[in-house]
Amino acid sequence: MPDWVQDAVWWHVYPLGFVGAEREAPADGAVTHRLDRLTAWLDYAVELGANGLALGPVFASSTHGYDTVDHSRIDPRLGDDADFDALVAAAHDRGLRVLLDGVFNHVGREHPAFRAVLEQGPAAPTADWFRLRWPHGRDAEPEYDAFEGHGQLVALDHSAPAVADWVTEVMTAWLDRGADGWRLDAAYAVPTSFWATVLSRVRARHPDAYLVGEVIHGDYTRVVRESGMDAVTQYELWKAVWSSLNDGNLHELAHALGRHDGFCEVFAPLTFVGNHDVTRIASRLTDVRHLPHALAVLFTVGGTPSVYAGDEQAFTGVKEDRAGGDDAVRPPFPDGPDGLAPFGWPTYRLHEQLIGLRRRHRWLHRARTTPLHRDNRQLSYAASADGERLVVALNLADEPARLPAPGAGAVLAGAGTVRRDTVELAAHGWAILEG
């Protein structure tokens, strides 16, 4: 993993939604320059404490960005190459690294490589890019593998050398242009052997690039070891955080923290409590008083934390399994931070405080956790690495609670009273303490 990732805190943006782009790309390809709207928010991200801008899809697509039709061109609903270059330059001027979202498991049906197949049949030079079948004859449209049953998303054949060559060139070209790394969309659906081939080539040209895969379930450690990725997304911890807080079952969280430590022995996971694919954390929690508890965990465990734009303002939004079901979690933002509602700023300040705490304790990127007390509604643990230590205490109950906190000192965030190796928390209270 590149050295700079130790200090990375990502502010994650879904650009098409953020700038209020149309649902479908214009038929005439007309360019609307909107990326500068995102530039207007970069100081806000820096003030939050982020030093990385993780972008969702920015390449030309038919609809939502994950049906890419041209990986070499900026989506015209966002702008053009000059707009992208200006955004990267503005981000770098502020010390923000830029992470791109690469969709390399599949392409949209309008991608030229697949259009060639529809027009030329098996003789198309790109026919071997896809897993095709011709049950109705070679003059008819072929059957093809689609990503998770979505016919508009045509799965690539990752055993084809031409696909590996093409993905390598796309990744390196945008790193050449100034990007600092890639999130690999649906990485779990792609053979690890493919990633091992491609990523080794990419690293040969860009050894300082950060390469993280979207892996929802499965053997995270095996994927990282076999693929050559720096990290994968930590969905296990995401799920355990909100469900343990909702169920009043902090044993689940303690178990997940133990598994998280196991992953940290091999790699530093990309951690989060929200992203563009899931219900907002402020909506997912049944008791909004527990939002600080979720954030306390996010910013005190090992890994590389990411904050989904809007979560730091307590945005709400429920993802639904239907057409347009992502819209609520991918809304347009105002022209600038001055257009935000006043009620979200306390949550912003809390993020600011916790990210600042993490910056003052850089070793948290490598932290491991040790349970000090586990109960359904109370949990305390020590986060430690490199001879340093913090204590985290959480209370979900309707009454105050005293938790074991051996070695705890001054309260750094939250609120509590420390007495004789214990910390007293208010009802639904939390604290992070010197260790």
User: Based on helices, strands and strand pairing, what is the structural class?
Assistant: alpha/beta
Proportion of strand residues = 15-25%
| SS element count, helices | 13
Compute the separation of the termini in Å: 28 Å
Largest sheet: 8 strands, parallel
How many beta-strand elements?
A: 23
Shape: globular
Which consecutive residue ranges, at least 5 long each, have pLDDT under 50?
A: none
Name the helicity range: 25-40%
Give the spatial strand order of the biggest sheet. 13-12-11-5-2-1-15-14
Mean of pLDDT: 97
- The Cα radius of gyration reads 23 Å
Would you write up a description of this structure?
By secondary structure, the protein is an alpha/beta fold. The protein is built from 13 helices and 23 strands. The chain has helices at residues 15-18, 35-39, 42-48, 81-93, 112-120, 161-176, 192-205, 220-227, 235-247, 250-264, 281-284, 291-298, 345-360; strands spanning 10-13, 52-55, 59-61, 68-74, 97-102, 106-108, 132-133, 143-144, 146-147, 150-155, 181-184, 210-213, 231-232, 270-272, 304-308, 368-374, 378-385, 388-395, 401-404, 411-414, 417-419, 422-425, 430-434.
Short structural description:
With 435 residues, the protein is α/β, with parallel strands linked by helices.
List the main descriptive attributes of the protein structure presented here.
single chain, 435 residues, alpha/beta, 8-stranded parallel β-sheet, 5-stranded antiparallel β-sheet, 13 helices, globular
Show the helix and strand layout:
Elements: E1 10-13, H1 15-18, H2 35-39, H3 42-48, E2 52-55, E3 59-61, E4 68-74, H4 81-93, E5 97-102, E6 106-108, H5 112-120, E7 132-133, E8 143-144, E9 146-147, E10 150-155, H6 161-176, E11 181-184, H7 192-205, E12 210-213, H8 220-227, E13 231-232, H9 235-247, H10 250-264, E14 270-272, H11 281-284, H12 291-298, E15 304-308, H13 345-360, E16 368-374, E17 378-385, E18 388-395, E19 401-404, E20 411-414, E21 417-419, E22 422-425, E23 430-434
Parallel strand pairs: 1-2, 1-15, 2-5, 5-11, 11-12, 12-13, 14-15
Antiparallel strand pairs: 3-4, 6-10, 7-8, 9-10, 16-17, 17-18, 18-23, 19-22, 20-23, 21-22
